[in-house]
Amino acid sequence: MLLNDFFKITTLKNATECELIAEIELNPNHKIYKGHFPGNPVVPGVVSVQMINEILSEHLKIKLMTSKARSIKFTSMINPKANPNLIFKINYSVTEDKNYKVIAQIFFEETVFLKFNGILSSSF
Length: 124
Known about the structure:
Layout: E1 7-16, E2 19-26, H1 32-35, H2 45-60, E3 65-74, E4 85-94, E5 100-108, E6 111-121
């Protein structure tokens, strides 16, 4: 779990019934940055995806993990010192087999850092 260690949620609200907006604050002193990369910290891509899992898990009050990533586009690097605050926009719907179809973006102001389209599962 990265929540409350690597990042904390400062705001979590529904924009619509199946759209969630989360504002988060990164911990720029987290030990992950000692290896990724010393002197030039960057949020690892897999960590960005995990944050989507954990934010939606927190909202739905169930544990989720990525079971299929249809598309992940990293459009800009996240430097926790330059961009400690991020916004997550997560659209989700329940599939026939009780998984969650998710389309998400991580951004701040005009900069989009990641676009994600995939399936999150609660049964693993």
